[in-house]
Amino acid sequence: MEHDFPALPEGTVTSPIGFSASATYAGLKKPGGEGVLDVGLLCSDVPCVAAGVFTTNRVRAAPVLLCQQRLAKATAQALVVNAGCANACTGPQGMANAVSMAEAAAKTLGLPPENVLVASTGVIGQPLPIERLREAIGRMTPTRDGGHDLARAIMTTDTSPKEIAVEVAIGEATATVAGIAKGSGMICPNMATMLAFLTTDAAVDAALARAALREAVDESFNMVAVDNDTSTNDMVLLLANGLAGNEPLQAGSEYAAVFQAALRQVCVHLARWIARDGEGATKLMEVTVEGALTLDQARAAARTVATSSLVKAAIHGNDPNWGRIAAAVGRSGAEMDWSKTDLYLEGLCLVRGGCPEQFSQPQVRRLLSAAEVRVKVCLNLGAESATAWGCDLSAEYVRINADYLT
Amino acid sequence: MEHDFPALPEGTVTSPIGFSASATYAGLKKPGGEGVLDVGLLCSDVPCVAAGVFTTNRVRAAPVLLCQQRLAKATAQALVVNAGCANACTGPQGMANAVSMAEAAAKTLGLPPENVLVASTGVIGQPLPIERLREAIGRMTPTRDGGHDLARAIMTTDTSPKEIAVEVAIGEATATVAGIAKGSGMICPNMATMLAFLTTDAAVDAALARAALREAVDESFNMVAVDNDTSTNDMVLLLANGLAGNEPLQAGSEYAAVFQAALRQVCVHLARWIARDGEGATKLMEVTVEGALTLDQARAAARTVATSSLVKAAIHGNDPNWGRIAAAVGRSGAEMDWSKTDLYLEGLCLVRGGCPEQFSQPQVRRLLSAAEVRVKVCLNLGAESATAWGCDLSAEYVRINADYLT
Fold first, then answer.
1. For the domain that residue B358 is a member of, what is the CATH number?
2. What stretch of H or E contains A35?
């Protein structure tokens, strides 16, 4: 079931009823950088049902560990976030600093500290300048239109803030599902971190919030890759405050699937944007694998193509080099029989049943020069399909990640 | 047990007794490219015990499938190889062409066709110009010093031929173990293929040949990565003709471990060379992981660091960005406890027990500017260790793989 819920003009994470946000600077991105937003607050007027999905990296930043602890009770009311310093690999002091950030935010907002979540992105292995940060947190006053600033504050090498809000009818009520994200850009000298914060005024019980978030993330953020490096700080958080007034949704209830679809739409929108805005990217690559034996295999195959350096470099150069796509699927772990496989670039069939079709190189090169390029592989073995998003690999990616100090 | 067997000056695949080789051109690398070697023969005076290790890609080129069939009997006497066309994704005609290459070589050498192995590297999805190729194969006369030409003929974007031979005493006899390889360079428009051909005049039984090759490959070629793309054509072949006159080696016999060590040395030498000569590479990166719980985990962690685009880009830029190394180990699947982990760059400890050490950025940058850079991660959890080899990621890699036609 595909939905296309209407997106609100200028929609952002404070579009749902009862959410407010603010952002300011603490000189984390730029020493003494007045006006360069790098700290933010997001809060709800009332306590929220809360859920999170976190990095699978065994090295986890202090804020990730703190959020995982605090989400055991499935409630939260606010989030404090900074960019410019990941607070990762920082030992016991790092955890103390994460707790201290939450405390400062709780004081500003007049909330119990344990209801405040914490996120960080930026340089690994450096301590947070916690006093400067606490001072900055004390300066903020969240407002209903503060979401845009928050979306800017979490950016690192992102070239644009990423925000969306969609409306969804849940019985008599109209709810809003919204989100902001920062992409797989890196801040010098740092590694990619993906952060996404989702809000909704829909009333949702904790079990559904968790399950719906997990499913939406699996179909969106987990299908995005810029460079295949999983950060120590990745997190996706969902806050649902229930102020839309709908009958609380739970698994199996009439509108649960509608809510799930809206959440998926928001996540996919943000995920695609992250891919398109990958470091050095000049275009979005959408890879769909159809006819796989299992969903896991379809996802693995789509992701492997989307992350192959060779495929990404070929797409960058508008090179119809389908052999690289075949080889990527072949090493993905998905069952495949090359003699049954079809392969398409931008809708044009290049391989049918494992046999190369005649095609015009200049035509395919023209098709590949678009801002979004679609790759489709039909395995013709089963009924499962999946889509992954990535970007091309450019010399600019190398420049950003190698020459940052020179 | 580390050995350092003496390398023969100008040693190559025809250094062991009874091996000869030849190379010529068939216009595969360069249309009408007289003098550009792209076809070669390797043969032994007598039948050899033979073993092979092949790509794990589910899409396998015709020569890979043919070699796998022919090695069931564990004997072979010759090899015919071409560069410039991978004969992959070419359907039934591709297999017929591989068989035809072997036939032509068998005719040239006066051998039964089923004793000839076949390897190809180059463009995927294009048919071999089989008549031109057969004509070229008919032109060759293998000689004792033809190994150097063969090493050149299999090159694609490699910048140098890769060859080595070492001497090893086996009881009263002196045997030679030798090899040539081509690296993870790509030929336009193609994907990486790794080929290595190993010869020895040691007498080895089939079971030991297989087991020794598997083990040597696991410690060498399987620990090399330029871009993590497993080719449809990768293969490593071992031919042992027994002409050194030693008592045939079998598993558990006195000199089996010595033979194993010599084979390992040859493979590691070639593997390191492949990494150093990766496309666009300006330096070799050697990653050692110590103190892992299992060997598989040690290998996975070392390989993940060596293939991380972010680590590779940092090494390219002489950037002491150890956070990226920590994050790569953390996502490798290896058990780790960051608070126990030590991390070294070029012997300098940057992290001890999960805590960053003070270090001079300019000093580390100087250390990283060497032609070979060593990364060491001590997990301090167990007794297993492994080493992987990779190269830095440069803008030149992107140029080679994106802009080949423009």
1. 3.10.20.340
2. none
Window 22-51 of A, Cβ < 8 Å to B: none
Domain range holding A309?
Answer: 284-402
Residue B287 pLDDT class (50, 70, 90 cuts): very high
Nearest by CB to residue A327, choosing from B229, B338, B356, is B229
Q: Give the span between the Cα atoms of A307 and A371, in whole angstroms.
A: 18
pTM of the complete model = 0.82
- Summary count for chain A: helices (H), strands (E): 11, 15
What confidence tens digit (pLDDT) does each residue in B61-120 have? Answer: 999 999 999 999 999 999 999 998 999 888 899 999 999 999 999 999 999 999 999 999
Give the integer Cα–Cα distance in Å for A66 and A221. 21
Nearest to A194 by CA among A95, A268, A104, A120: A120
Residue B53 neighbours by CB distance under 10 Å: 20
Hey, is the C-beta of A399 within 8 angstroms of any chain B C-beta? yes
- pLDDT above 70 covers a percentage of chain A that reads 94
Q: What percentage of chain A exceeds 90 in pLDDT?
A: 62
Q: What is the mean pLDDT of residues B123-152?
A: 94
Closest C-alpha among B21, B310, B291 to residue A229: B310
Chain A positions touching B317 (Cβ under 8 A) are 401-406
Residue in the structure block whose two tokens are 């993590």: B228
Angle subtended at Cα A157 by Cα B400 and Cα A4, rounded to the nearest 5 degrees: 95
- Indicate the pairing of strand B284-292 with strand B372-378: parallel
Establish if A88 touches chain B: CB-CB under 8 angstroms.
Answer: yes
How confident is residue A227, by pLDDT bands cut at 50, 70 and 90?
low
Contact B368, B358 (CB under 8 A): no
Section B159-168 average pLDDT: 93
Torsion angle in degrees (nearest 10) through CA of A121, A124, A130, A136 = -30
Cα separation, A13 vs A77, in Å, equals 14
For chain A, positions 152-191, list CB contacts with chain B under 8 A.
186, 189-191
A396-405, B276-285, B378-387, range with greatest mean pLDDT: B378-387
A105-119, A181-195, B230-244, range with greatest mean pLDDT? A105-119
Catalytic residue among A24, A156, A176, A193: A193
- B330–A192: do the CB atoms touch at under 8 Å? no
- C-beta atoms of A190 and B309 within 8 A: no
Q: Are B374 and A290 in contact (CB under 8 A)?
A: no
What is the average per-residue pLDDT within B38-52? 96
Give chain B's largest Cα–Cα span: 68
| Domain count of the fold of chain B | 2
Torsional class of B373: left (φ above 0), alpha (ψ -120 to 50), beta (otherwise) = beta
Residue A50 lies in a domain: yes
Distance from CA of B346 to the nearest CA of A (A): 18
Question: Model confidence at B229, in pLDDT bands (50, 70, 90)?
Answer: low
Nearest Cα neighbor of A185 from A48, A84, A53 is A84
Angstrom distance (rounded) from CA B28 to CA B155: 12
- Is residue B116 a contact partner of residue B122, using CB atoms and an 8 Å limit? no
Structure confidence by residue, pLDDT tens digits, A166-208: 999 999 999 999 999 987 654 232 334 678 899 999 999 999 9
Considering only CB atoms, which chain A residues are within 8 Å of B283?
none
Do residues A74 and A99 both lie within one domain?
A: yes
Task: Indicate if B341 belongs to the active site.
Answer: no
Which of B223, B246, B276 marks a domain boundary? B276
Task: Confirm whether A390 is domain-assigned.
Answer: yes
CATH code, domain carrying A44: 3.60.70.12
